[in-house]
């Protein structure tokens, strides 16, 4: 079976490794960029994604790139604690959670793909068309520096991100991704280690928020590399460009007064080398991902808001699920139907959950119920309610510890 993958992002590269692991050999990845530059800042991979990487035999390569957070804690704008929970191994999963630089993750996955696949990644190939043929095959058309170029395959996997051409070819009237009205500023900074040096924190509410997590162990001087996302509701535009750099100072100013005993947020923002501005956008759920031998995967299928750390994780799980069904079904059509049944309804529900702010709802509830702060969080959001919000989200995202630990493997190797 000949398979082509559109996009060498996290999802496309994970799909290449997963398909290879499932026994396919005629796999080629096509990427629009002329060079894979490893762009971005931090990204979180949840235990269910680490399980898949582990079963692909690449978890050690990936784990070496980042830090496994052991706790996730939510705070108010004033730094009052709302909720805290163990993460990864500390929460009883058989696999850790991992905070990693997206660029380093992408470059490492690229190296693994280059090592394992027969065909090198074809750079400088921008997908511009897909046609279904009478014999059941699919033909992809690419624009390259040397002119247009066509490739025919049994399966085309559209893993070309939030601005997916594969998706736009099937849904030409969809337009730009809808904007939430929130703007995100993402950066990497070096600041004194906070809390236990392995905690991911979120402070604020639905209108303004700061998220931070370590990307490396603290160095001997007690400082550490930290990824942050500052977020605020404000007039702006929903034009989504992952690489738009802006001046840190006005962003730090927006967070003036957000200085806690253990973290000075304006100082952390001001110390960033570079801040990337990005509108918080997602994509509406689709009624269908697969057409003939073509399907969608990762952000091309279900781009979501970043609350809950789903982007990279769900793309990796899509990749493994797709490879499993292609290797075990009788026909391509049956495989793509099973893949879609396994993933699309779950991602549609999760998308709705992230639009309702996912696990971060506790922060909004604390702001609404006790805008001036509180003496005891139990009087504001009872423990049972906080526990339920956290568990509901893990159910929707597919990573309740017991369910994940006991789920059969998606590996199909003998
Ligand atoms: C430059 C960049 C920086 C990012 N930074 C972050 C970050 O800091 N933190 C975070 O959480 N998430 C980041 N993301 C998003 C994150 O990678 C995804 O949400 C998630 O990993 C799902 O991956 P994906 O493979 O579906 O999409 P992506 O990782 O977005 O990959 C899509 C790939 O498809 C390629 N492509 C697009 N159109 C075409 C086409 N027509 N033909 C061929 N190839 C095409 C793109 O160049 C890209 O390599 C970033 C994405 C990009 C592209």
Automatic annotation (TrEMBL):
<dbReference type="Pfam" id="PF01494">
    <property type="entry name" value="FAD_binding_3"/>
</dbReference>
<keyword id="KW-0560">Oxidoreductase</keyword>
<dbReference type="InterPro" id="IPR036188">
    <property type="entry name" value="FAD/NAD-bd_sf"/>
</dbReference>
<keyword id="KW-0503">Monooxygenase</keyword>
<dbReference type="GO" id="GO:0018669">
    <property type="term" value="F:3-hydroxybenzoate 6-monooxygenase activity"/>
</dbReference>
<dbReference type="InterPro" id="IPR002938">
    <property type="entry name" value="FAD-bd"/>
</dbReference>
<protein>
    <submittedName>
        <fullName>3-hydroxybenzoate 6-hydroxylase 1</fullName>
        <ecNumber>1.14.13.24</ecNumber>
    </submittedName>
</protein>
<dbReference type="InterPro" id="IPR050493">
    <property type="entry name" value="FAD-dep_Monooxygenase_BioMet"/>
</dbReference>
<dbReference type="GO" id="GO:0071949">
    <property type="term" value="F:FAD binding"/>
</dbReference>
<feature type="domain" description="FAD-binding">
    <location>
        <begin position="2"/>
        <end position="168"/>
    </location>
</feature>
<feature type="domain" description="FAD-binding">
    <location>
        <begin position="288"/>
        <end position="351"/>
    </location>
</feature>
């Amino acid at each position: 079976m000949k398979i082509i993958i559109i996009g060498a992002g996290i999802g496309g590269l994970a799909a290449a490794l997963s398909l290879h692991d499932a026994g396919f050999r005629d796999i080629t990845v096509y990427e629009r960029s002329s060079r894979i530059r490893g762009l971005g800042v931090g990204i979180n991979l949840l235990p269910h994604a680490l399980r898949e990487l582990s079963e692909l035999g690449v978890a050690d390569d990936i784990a070496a790139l980042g830090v496994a957070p052991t706790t996730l804690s939510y705070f108010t704008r004033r730094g009052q604690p709302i909720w805290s929970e163990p993460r990864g191994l500390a929460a009883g999963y058989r696999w850790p959670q991992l905070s990693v630089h997206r660029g380093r993750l992408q470059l490492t996955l690229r190296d693994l793909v280059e090592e394992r696949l027969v065909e090198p990644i074809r750079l400088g190939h921008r997908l511009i068309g897909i046609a279904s043929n009478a014999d059941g095959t699919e033909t992809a058309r690419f624009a390259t520096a040397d002119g247009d170029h066509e490739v025919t395959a049994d399966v085309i996997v559209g893993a070309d991100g939030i601005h997916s051409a594969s998706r736009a070819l099937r849904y030409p009237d969809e337009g730009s991704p809808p904007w939430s009205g929130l703007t995100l500023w993402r950066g990497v900074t070096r600041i004194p280690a906070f809390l236990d040096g392995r905690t991911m924190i979120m402070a604020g509410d639905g209108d303004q928020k700061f998220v931070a997590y370590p990307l490396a162990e603290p160095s001997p001087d007690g400082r550490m590399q930290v990824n942050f996302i500052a977020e605020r509701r404000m007039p702006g535009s929903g034009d989504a460009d992952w690489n738009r750099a802006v001046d840190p100072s006005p962003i730090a100013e927006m967070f003036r007064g957000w200085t806690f005993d253990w973290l000075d947020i304006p100082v952390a923002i001001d110390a960033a080398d570079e801040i990337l501005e990005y509108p918080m956008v997602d994509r509406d759920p689709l009624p269908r991902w697969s057409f003939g031998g073509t399907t969608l995967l990762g952000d091309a299928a279900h781009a979501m808001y970043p609350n809950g750390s789903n982007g990279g994780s769900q793309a990796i799980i899509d990749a493994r699920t797709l490879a499993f069904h292609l290797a075990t079904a009788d026909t391509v059509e049956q495989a793509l139907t099973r893949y879609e049944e396994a993933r699309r309804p779950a991602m549609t529900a999760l998308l709705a959950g992230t639009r309702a702010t996912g696990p971060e709802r506790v922060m909004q509830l604390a702001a609404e119920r006790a805008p001036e702060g509180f003496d005891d969080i139990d009087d504001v959001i009872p423990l049972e309610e906080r526990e339920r919000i956290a568990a509901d989200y893990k159910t929707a995202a597919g990573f309740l510890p017991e369910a994940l630990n006991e789920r059969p493997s998606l590996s199909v190797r003998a």
